[in-house]
Design brief:
By secondary structure, the chain is an alpha/beta fold. The chain has three helices and eight strands, in the order αβββαβαββββ. The protein is globular and about 40 Å long.
């Protein structure tokens, strides 16, 4: 009986660890309306998160491509977006401001997708995410990743 109880406790503990180790996956559609389909995401501190950015647009890439950048809490989204305009060769991700970016996807044209996996910050709070394709952030293409302990 004791052996069965110990085995049951071990199985429960291992099952809990396996669930905890799974990444939270969020699929976000980048819309022609210059909005993300998910404008808020909630995660746990230190949780592994996978973002899949999908662009279902029929417009040419030069007119309607998108990316997804998660910024550090103290980052200035407006300044980062302004710098991104000069970073076309790097998918509008300014490499000289990489210290303000937690994670980002590449640029996705219509019919394409990209995925990024990262570890959520340990510090609870709100972290902004934006699209830096020219004009998109200014038009409101942004959202908030909230890190919140249960």
């Amino acid at each position: 009986m004791l052996k069965k109880t110990i085995m049951l406790v071990m199985f429960a503990a291992l099952s809990t660890m396996a669930v905890a180790a799974q990444a939270k996956t969020v699929e976000i559609e980048a819309k022609n309306s210059l909005r993300f389909s998910q404008e808020s995401i909630t995660v746990k501190p230190g949780e592994e998160v996978t973002i899949k950015l999908v662009n279902n647009s029929k417009l040419p890439a030069s007119a309607m491509a998108h990316n997804w950048l998660l910024l550090k809490a103290d980052a200035d989204a407006r300044k980062l977006d302004e710098a991104a305009a000069s970073a076309k060769a790097n998918d509008y991700v300014p490499s000289d401001m990489s210290d303000q970016i937690i994670a980002h996807t590449g640029l996705v044209a219509g019919g394409e997708s990209d995925t990024v996996t990262f570890t959520a910050p340990e510090e609870p709070g709100d972290y902004e995410y934006i699209c830096t394709f020219p004009g998109h952030f200014a038009a409101g293409m942004k959202g908030t990743l909230t890190v919140k302990a249960e």
